Here is the input.
Amino acid sequence: MKHFIALMALIATPLAAQDFSEGSEAKSWNLYAEVPARFEAEVVDVLCKLTGDCPENCGDGTRQMGLLRTTDDVMVFPLKNNQPAFTGAATDLLPYCGQTVTVDGLLIDDPDLNAKNLYLVQTVTTADGTVNKANQWTKEWAKANPDAAGKGPWFRRDPRINEIIAREGYLGLGQEADAAYIAENF
Here is the structure.
């Protein structure tokens, strides 16, 4: 039976290894194992698909979004949008909750690292052909945090992050551990 399962896995491998690079205009981020990938997918609430817990409108931005690829019914996890900061793609995909769209970006697939179907979405194209860049995260963050305006990266001004640092320190070990580390190393 072990040999049968191994043989079936070997036979299925070429079918599973599809090339989605045709027609992709994705820009390289020079990341290990990145491959340009353009495909059609339904934008879904991952938790909904996995557990059946399905709030309206994919949780209104409180859930991780996924891409259920139409050609093979594989769940692809969009972990990043098209901005230089490593911000998530949920903000950019939420407006398309439940819709079938065409996405273009970079697919990370590396069996040695157990990285499979991770995606960096750069554009979303709707059924009517409208192309939208996936770059809304920092704009939406600024709208949600008007009191955090200023210079420097958003995460230095984010009230949630600053509250955690105040409570737990930069190392997550408390203010005393931070003070000791700083005294020893700086």
